[in-house]
Design brief:
The chain is α/β, with parallel strands linked by helices. It has helices at 23-33, 36-44, 84-98, 154-166, 185-195, 207-210, 217-229, 238-248, 290-300, 318-327, 342-351, 366-373, 401-413, 415-429, 434-454, and strands at 48-50, 69-73, 102-106, 119-122, 176-180, 199-203, 232-235, 255-257, 268-270, 277-281, 308-312, 334-338, 354-357, 378-381, 394-396.
């Protein structure tokens, strides 16, 4: 058969902008190609760093009756930490050491931890208790990560750490056992009973908060155990103390509220940015309300076309938040940086014009206090613990997207308001530091020791 003649395809019409893309599309594509570190460098470029005069650390109002050996049980410690728990642990033991107390800090994982004079950091494998040993937990999760399922092995890892803590033998007599959050409550309480020493339990957050009201029973039981067994309990906010009393049935007279604190930033910046920046810095978890931040940003973006919205942090909500930014039409105005280092964190806080913490529930919210200490005007959720000590910040209902947007626009539009709030917030954030918080903690230790000896601590 003769070969069928082929009809040539019609020539494709080229777009009118031949050889040249619209400026907006070209800019978006260039931005997407830039690496995360390049974007961070761009944000830091306009900064002129000024090192403030070194201020002497505030001394405790009175010397403690005697030096203590504190056996502390935690889950994470700088430089590897995922939130306020690691920061709190580091700053507390640093000040306890300055006061002359000795600290042995038990952690589940091996690591290159930040060294603190007078503080011994131990983990399974680094030291073996005389009676029995235990393997280090196999699955490493951050203090605020959620297990995938009851059978994913994480709780078994916690159990391994529990057994190691419970059998730990100290070469130096211990005065008090201090446990942070639920990970060490069972092991710590067993250890305290064996040593016949008081147990202090610091609650940084609860399973109700982390799960938004849908707690895992296994974790909930460990929290309840810690509250029952502890001679004294420390809560990081009044809101958290109220929850411990109402939901867990804890005794209010055994709970002491000791807030978190911050240190003055090592560097203070004079900023002359080309683009105003609104910053969220923290975990990308449902309880943090980052979707509210993005929805408010979508309202502000048309009014202030030069503003850049920065989301720094990592977590399970990342894919959903990325899709939400695209859906809201602000993908080209929102920069997702992922996990940032401490140095990058300092740079971002110095660069920001406004900081937003829109948490649905927040036992404290140390990142907001860090922002205030950096002189950044701050917008907080009313349900955050830090709102109890942040009188010079805007407090907004976590669900009120319109109010968040209004406050953002207000601070971005009026430099005098922005600078005044930043200055007042910085003064307030630095009024009480970690030295005072550590002294308050030591008073709880001595109270627990006295109560334990008198038989009234439990």
């Amino acid at each position: 058969m003769p070969e069928r003649a082929r009809t040539p395809a019609p020539a494709r019409k080229r777009p009118a902008h031949r050889g040249r893309r619209p400026a907006k599309l070209a800019r978006v594509e260039r931005d997407r190609r830039k690496s995360r570190r390049t974007r961070l460098a761009e944000l830091s470029e306009p900064l002129q760093w000024v090192r403030p005069a070194e201020a002497a650390a505030p001394a405790p109002t009175r010397a403690p009756p005697r030096r203590l050996h504190v056996l502390m049980v935690g889950w994470e410690f700088p430089p590897s930490h995922s939130g306020g728990l690691g920061v709190h642990s580091y700053e507390l033991v640093r000040e306890l050491s300055r006061m002359g107390h000795r600290v042995s800090f038990l952690l589940p994982y091996a690591g290159e931890y930040t060294q603190v004079p007078g503080v011994e950091i131990l983990w399974p494998g680094a030291v073996r208790p005389r009676r029995a040993g235990a393997a280090a937990p196999g699955r490493r999760l951050g203090a605020y990560d959620r297990p995938l399922s009851p059978s994913d092995g994480f709780l078994e890892s916690v159990g391994s750490f529990t057994e190691w803590v419970a059998r730990f033998e100290s070469e130096v007599p211990v005065d008090v056992v201090h446990v942070h959050d639920w990970f060490g409550t069972e092991g710590g309480s067993r250890l305290a009973r064996r040593l016949r020493r008081p147990l202090v339990f610091t609650v940084h957050s609860t399973e109700y908060d982390r799960s938004l009201g849908h707690p895992w029973q296994e974790i909930l039981e460990r929290e309840q155990l810690g509250l029952r067994q502890a001679d004294r309990v420390i809560a990081v906010s009044k809101h958290l103390k109220q929850q411990l009393v109402e939901r867990y049935g804890a005794r209010a007279d055994r709970i002491k509220v000791i807030y978190n604190a911050v240190r003055a930033p090592e560097r203070v910046a004079r900023i002359s940015p080309e683009r105003p920046t609104v910053l969220y810095l923290g975990r990308l978890a449902a309880m943090k309300g980052v979707d509210t931040f993005l929805r408010a940003a979508a309202q502000v973006a048309p009014q202030l076309p030069d503003v850049l919205f920065v989301v720094a942090g990592e977590g399970p909500e990342y894919p959903r938040l990325l899709a939400l930014a695209a859906h809201l039409g602000i993908a080209d105005r929102t920069l997702f940086l992922g996990r940032v280092t401490d140095e990058e964190r300092t740079s971002l806080l110095a660069r920001a014009d406004v900081f937003v913490l829109p948490s649905v529930v927040e036992p404290f919210g140390i990142a907001a206090l860090e922002a205030m200490a950096s002189g950044v005007p701050t917008i907080l959720s009313k349900t955050s613990g830090v709102a109890e000590v942040a009188g010079h910040a805007f407090a907004v209902d976590f669900w009120d997207i319109d109010e968040y947007a209004s406050r953002m626009a207000e601070l971005l539009s009026y430099p005098a308001l922005r600078h005044t709030m930043g200055d007042l917030g910085r003064i307030q954030a630095l009024t009480t530091g970690w030295a005072e918080r550590a002294f308050e903690t030591v008073t709880v230790y001595f109270d627990a020791i006295a109560g334990h000896r008198a038989g009234s601590g439990r």
